[in-house]
């Protein structure tokens, strides 16, 4: 998926529980410009240290999308959604990945590595990145999200 001959920029971050999934997803994203904010090992870490940079980059427009992964997906979701202009969606099935883009214009996908298969995680990312925002009545609602 390319826009105006420019590759989409995607930021990734995870904790130790999401490390394996993040690395595998990163390897699949060859059609995109990616930045990995870590972690870079399965050693125990604090997820905010690795997902705040993802959210900051998406919020500023430096990155088009973000992908964050932890064990439940909840911690990373709570963290990145603290940033203005971030609309992160915790996804565990394909309809959620699609609807989060179509209706909510989500710009970060949060994945629960301990609750979904790696194959499903890869499918979720692909569906998320390839689904367009529908706009229309949804744009009005999305414009009301930031505090």
Helices, strands, pairings?
Blueprint: E1 2-3, E2 6-7, E3 9-14, H1 19-28, E4 33-36, H2 48-60, E5 65-70, H3 74-80, E6 88-90, H4 94-102, E7 108-112, H5 118-130, H6 137-142
Parallel strand pairs: 3-4, 3-5, 5-7, 6-7
Antiparallel strand pairs: 1-2
Helix pairs in contact: 1-5, 2-3, 4-5
Considering the chains and any ligands shown, give keywords for the structure.
alpha/beta; two-stranded antiparallel sheet; Ribose 5-phosphate Isomerase B, Chain: A; five-stranded parallel sheet; 6 helices; 7 strands; 147 residues; 19% strand
Describe it.
There is one protein chain. The chain is α/β, with parallel strands linked by helices and 147 residues long. It has one domain (2-141): 3-Layer(aba) Sandwich (Ribose 5-phosphate Isomerase B, Chain: A). The chain contains six helices and seven strands. The chain has helices spanning 19-28, 48-60, 74-80, 94-102, 118-130, 137-142, and strands at 2-3, 6-7, 9-14, 33-36, 65-70, 88-90, 108-112. The protein has a five-stranded parallel beta sheet, sandwiched between helices. Strands 1-2 form a two-stranded antiparallel ribbon. Helix 2 (48-60) crosses helix 3 and helix 4 (94-102) runs parallel beside helix 5. 37% of the residues are buried. The mean pLDDT is 94.
Give the low-confidence spans.
none
Please estimate the helix content: 25-40%
Mean pLDDT: 94
**Percentage of residues in DSSP E strands:** 15-25%
**What is the class in the CATH system?**
Alpha Beta
Q: Write down the secondary-structure element order.
A: EEEHEHEHEHEHH
**Count of discrete domains:** 1
At CATH level 3, the topology is: Ribose 5-phosphate Isomerase B, Chain: A
CATH H level, superfamily name = Sugar-phosphate isomerase, RpiB/LacA/LacB
E-strand count: 7
Strand order of the largest sheet: 4-3-5-7-6
